[in-house]
Model the fold of this input.
Amino acid sequence: MASYHLSVKTIKRSAGRSVTAAAAYRAGERIECQREGRLHDYTRKQGIEETFIVAPEHAPAWAQDRSALWNAAEASETRRNSVTGREWELALPSEIGAAERSRIVRDFAQELVGRYGVAVDVAIHAPHREGDQRNHHAHVLTTTRQLEPEGFAAKTRVLDSAKTGGVEIEQMRGVWAELQNRALERVGEHERVDHRSLKKQAETARDRGDTLSAEELDRDPELKLGPAANSMERRAKAAAAREGREYVPVTERGAVVHAARQARAAFRDMRERLDVARETYGVEREAGQGRVSAGLAALRAAAAKDRGAREAGDFRERLARITGRDEAERDVPEAGAERTDRSRAQERLRETLNKDRGDGIERDGEVERDGDKPSIRERLDAVLNKPRERLEPEDDRELERDNDEISRDVDRGRGHSL
Done:
């Protein structure tokens, strides 16, 4: 199923960041920041699939030049703590092709331009070669001012305000979810992404009765590593792979994220095994097995589940191979055999019942013993058939007296603590 991710971040001078450096890094280009007098050269950066700029129709021609656009955005802000840009980070569905990914990102950029009148700089990135190969994503940089024919004009206060900013971003999250769902439908995917929070999705899953999905969704968001820690963890993973040893996180945040991922993997494995056990039990019961036999078969199937390779074919046949039923059926003696497994078990049970502490065994219907010790069967019969003893009248009266004395002692003891 396609996953949903949209996050919005601001690029602030107070945090030591510049929008020229951010644009150069995401687009993999060389941009000289005229305000700082620094050169940001990221032309060696790899994994950039496509870059483009979307601006209002009446925008000046220089808006299509990345260096001119972001140097003008820097020049339009005069305060030391100004917000010079806004970044929308988007996860792209791996189920669709590169052309469809480019199409929905361009449509989203057009929505931003039409809604806020800003210029939009898009960079589509491929998955990192050492990471999850489904992690297609896009970085969408937007100006914080509207772009008019004369240049940058008023600030987009609707996004900066605490009252309206959250509402606007939530609406754009819905727009992005709808664009993805349309693309998934075009390629024949029936699953849909959901832009709501995990808590809201979990509540909906519980309303539907989908307990497992609710438990999986209702969890805290994963801790973000950050660029420095992420780079250190990638190097540690690569070193562990080269040396043939288990990866051990080298940062505190990496250890937290690694533990959380392992816990989720264990939960998914447990859920898969539970599904296998449940279906195995149903198949065994339909085949006429008792509850105990079906339960044992379900446990064996869950324990023997191979997560790495699932064979194709009928599920009943695979269950038969897992539980060993096909071998058991082949091992059943043919008609005319002297003794079946059941007859052997019954014979062993008779031998056990007729033993008198190891001194006697039933042979040809008679018990041979070295002494006069009773067999297990005889002792068991004696216990089961022992008549119940009756109390004599005087014993009944004595028992009643004892009960009366106990009652008086209890009455006298009320109100006193021990």
Q: What stands out?
A: The chain has three domains: 6-195, 231-330, 346-404.
